[in-house]
Amino acid sequence: MVWTTYRWLFISLACIGLVADQVSKYAVFGWLYREGYWSDGHGNSYDVLPGWFKLVAQYDLSTPLSEDWRGPLQRLNAPVMPRVNHGALFGMGQSHRLRANTVFAVVSGLAAVVIVLWGWRCATARDLWLSMALGLILGGTLGNLYDRLVFFGVRDFLYFYKIDWPVFNVADCCLVCGATLLFFHAFFLPIKPAEDLTMNQSSMPATPAVCGPDKSIPAVSAPPVASISHSPDGQPATTSLTPANSDASVAGPASASPANCHARDGVSQATNTDIGDRRSEEPGG
Question: Model confidence at 233, in pLDDT bands (50, 70, 90)?
Answer without folding.
Answer: low
